[in-house]
Design brief:
Blueprint lengths: L9 H10 L3 E4 L3 H7 L12 E4 L3 H13 L4 E4 L14 E4 L6 E4 L56 H7 L67 E4 L5 E4 L42 H5 L21 E3 L4 E6 L4 H10 L2 E5 L4 E4 L1 E2 L21 H4 L6 E7 L5 E4 L5 H10 L5 E11 L3 E9 L5 H12 L6 E8 L8 E8 L3 H11 L7 E4 L2 E3 L1 H4 L2 H6 L6 E9 L4 H11 L6 E7 L14 H4 L3 E9 L7 H13 L19 H6 L5 H11 L32
Parallel strand pairs: 2-4, 3-4
Antiparallel strand pairs: 1-2, 5-9, 6-7, 8-10, 9-15, 10-11, 12-15, 13-14, 13-15, 16-18, 16-19, 16-20, 17-18, 17-22, 21-23, 22-23
Helix pairs in contact: 8-17, 9-13
Length: 706
């Protein structure tokens, strides 16, 4: 396809290639498209070249090259930002090859190995982090296109097979494949009976006693792909060299499963792993843990073991209150969670002997890239442990002048304060070190109801009242979303209690007691945290290449009139709209040492309009409905701006500034010190080098007009 945008000249291209060890591709090279593509299809890429550095020195060289030739740079760390800042520069710095990852327990005094003392991927460092628990690969990322490695991330249906069957009856996984283009259908007839092979009724303690209309499903969250085989403790444990070792423990259960087909590979779309493929679950991530290989009772080695009646993970007692995870900026959150699940730390077991527990980083649910660590980041662990940025303990940063520094509480404290919440405007983080927490099991899942404008307000208010005063271990949200293809819109309540069923079921009882409508699906049960992280994306059925538009806010309360207005407005939204109320509070208010202000941390709920629609579909309501809901309906209860991680395209400068509230003036002072000429202009930062407010179109790429 012909392009109206220029490519890098031969001379400059050869100079760029000679300065870095990683690969460089200029416009016109097929690989340029691979590395410059964004999840949001509504972004025009005008860059001349893309570079895939292997480490911080490579990033430094690219920055110096750009400065020498007075061209701009932008930084891509996953490609999920809807505004497109990541590909707005003349040169795109794609961090996808910086993928080293490591976990270490805290030292006896609580300290950790500094990033500067850890080896670079493929390099020689001073000290290895942690005890000899892991066999770490020193293989430098190959120059093959990254999309060839995305097969293992392809499916979100590992979150729940029952939800997958509900959302994709007949096996179709194409979002909105047979839905009308203009307005969603809202069927008033009774929902057809859900056919599922594993339906059962929980005893009263499961929460069903309050509502005879609720259908409860035994949540084998992985469906047939993990149905127990003749030996439920038999599984293939990958070794460090890629070979597979069969591990078997005695059991007398009968064989009820067959081997799932391998994931197919898509060479056309680097985000193909985001497409729903219920029949092709992702293969398990290879564990490099010596602990996993040395323990015959390595129950943690496969999340599917949570479905076994002999599961003892629920009763494993972590030895450490937290661990430290170090990872390169090219790692996406799902890859980090997969690593955590495959590389647990030793624990004690009530059954006797050795046990193990995975340690996970507080983050937003999949899919997100590594920049979530420096833009806030709120997810299932947020109420218990704080935002992603609150848990960062150290970062390797390349500054606007090419200098490479390690930033922490003790080093460059002013930048450390600004980095955690506004990081992309201050430098390129190439490696992160963050706290991770033990998560043996979660009691989590979805309660799905039909959307009716007459009854939905009652359900949302019931949810609000049930979660008021909830403990920090409980995460919960309620969302209004387009339903399965060709069917009704839905109200979905998601809960995630960080702990076992015995402690979380009382909250399920309360939430599921609403009897205003029949519950179409309740699949809340014990799950691995890894699979729970897929649950939001599974319900949203997000599709790469669609147009995406996001608006968000933090609100102080959720009064009845706001609920009523919200439901009426949502009833008239176009296809692909999802409106979310997410319980905030808890540990968010414990942290005041970074640039996200206290006022925002005191919010009761985070809210978001998450809109997607076909790239060829043109309906201004896809944008206007989100703007109207956030800016007008929610205005009486809004607290400043949203969490920075929710900033989207065409954000008014005032909303960006409001994200930082009382901290904005100090943030500007730090910006002048570390990036005085606004080199990192291709970001959310709404000021130019003179400190003047600029409009969004001056610092984000063009978008397809509608």
């Amino acid at each position: 396809m012909a392009s109206n945008f220029p490519s890098l000249s031969d001379v400059h291209y050869q100079e760029l290639k000679s300065t870095v060890r990683g690969d460089a591709y200029r416009r016109g090279d097929p690989s340029f498209l691979d590395y410059s593509r964004m999840f949001n299809g509504d972004v025009k890429v005008s860059a001349m070249a893309v570079v895939c550095p292997l480490d911080a020195p490579d990033v430094s060289q690219v920055i110096l090259f750009c400065r020498k030739h007075s061209i701009s740079a932008s930084v891509k760390a996953g490609g999920y930002g809807t505004a497109g800042w990541a590909v707005g520069g003349d040169i795109i710095i794609d961090l996808c090859k910086i993928t080293g990852i490591d976990i270490e327990p805290p030292a006896a005094d609580g300290s950790f190995t500094s990033i500067r003392d850890m080896p670079l991927l493929g390099g020689k460092g001073k000290v290895k982090a942690g005890p000899p628990l892991l066999v770490r690969s020193a293989t430098v990322a190959s120059s093959k296109r990254r999309r060839e490695d995305d097969d293992e991330l392809r499916s979100y249906d590992l979150a729940s097979a029952t939800v997958a069957d509900f959302l994709h009856p007949g096996g179709s996984s194409a979002p909105f494949a047979d839905r009308p283009h203009v307005t969603r259908r809202r069927l008033e007839s009774a929902a057809p009976a859900l056919e599922t092979p594993q339906m059962s009724t929980y005893p009263a303690t499961s929460g069903s006693s309050h509502n005879p209309n609720t259908t409860l499903l035994s949540s084998n969250s992985l469906g047939s792909s993990i149905a127990m085989v003749s030996n439920p403790l038999a599984f293939n444990l990958p070794s460090t060299d890629g070979a597979t070792t069969a591990v078997a423990l005695p059991s007398a259960l009968s064989d009820t499963s067959s081997k799932p087909p391998p994931c197919s590979s898509s060479l056309d779309d680097p985000f193909s792993y985001l497409d729903d493929t219920p029949n092709n679950p992702a293969p398990p991530v290879a564990s490099t843990s010596r602990l996993a290989q040395s323990m015959p009772n390595a129950l943690f080695a496969t999340p599917s073991f949570l479905e076994s009646p002999t599961n003892m993970l629920t009763y494993a007692m972590p030895i450490y209150s937290h661990a430290f995870l170090t990872f390169g900026a090219g790692k996406r959150q799902k890859e980090i969670d997969q690593f955590s699940a495959a590389n647990p730390l030793e624990a004690t077991s009530l059954a006797g002997g050795r046990g193990a527990v995975p340690y996970h980083v507080p983050s937003a649910a999949h899919p997100v890239g590594s920049a979530i660590m420096i833009l806030g980041g709120f997810g299932f662990l947020g109420r218990l442990h704080g935002l992603s940025s609150d848990n960062l303990v150290e970062a390797e940063v390349v500054l606007a002048d090419g200098q490479i520094i390690v930033v922490s509480h003790n080093e460059h404290p002013d930048l450390w304060w600004a980095l955690r919440g506004a990081g992309p405007a201050f430098g390129v983080v190439t490696r992160y070190k963050t706290r991770a927490y033990p998560v043996p099991v979660v009691f989590a899942g979805n309660l799905i109801y039909r959307f009716h404008r007459a009854t939905a307000p009652s359900l949302v208010k019931h949810f609000r009242d049930c979660v008021k005063g909830a403990p920090r271990e409980l995460y919960a949200n309620v969302l209004l979303t387009a339903g399965p293809a060709g069917q009704d819109s839905l109200v979905v309540i998601q809960m995630c209690y960080v702990g076992p069923k015995v402690k979380g079921q009382e909250f399920l009882q309360a939430i599921s007691s609403w009897d205003g409508e029949r519950c179409l699906l309740n699949e809340v049960d014990e799950k691995s945290f890894l699979h729970q992280q897929d649950s939001v994306a599974q319900v949203l059925r997000g599709k790469a290449g669609n147009k995406w538009f996001i608006r968000s806010a933090l609100i102080s309360s959720l009064p009845d009139d706001i609920v009523n207005k919200t439901v009426l407005q949502f009833a008239d939204t176009p296809v692909g709209c999802t409106w979310l109320f997410e319980l905030a509070g808890g540990a968010l208010g414990d942290f005041e040492d970074n640039c996200i202000p206290k006022a925002q941390r005191q919010a009761s709920f985070t809210v978001a309009a998450l809109h997607q629609w076909d790239i060829d579909f043109q309906d201004p309501r896809c944008v206007h409905s989100a703007e109207e809901w956030i800016a007008e309906t929610l205005a009486p209860v809004t607290l400043g701006g949203p969490l920075p991680s929710f900033l989207g395209r065409q954000e008014p400068p005032g909303r960006v500034i409001a994200c930082y509230g009382e901290n904005w003036a100090r943030l500007c002072e730090v910006k002048k010190k570390y990036d005085p000429d606004n080199f990192f202009r291709n970001s959310f930062w709404p000021l130019n080098a003179k400190g003047e407010i600029i409009e969004p179109e001056e610092h984000e790429p063009q978008h397809i007009q509608f």
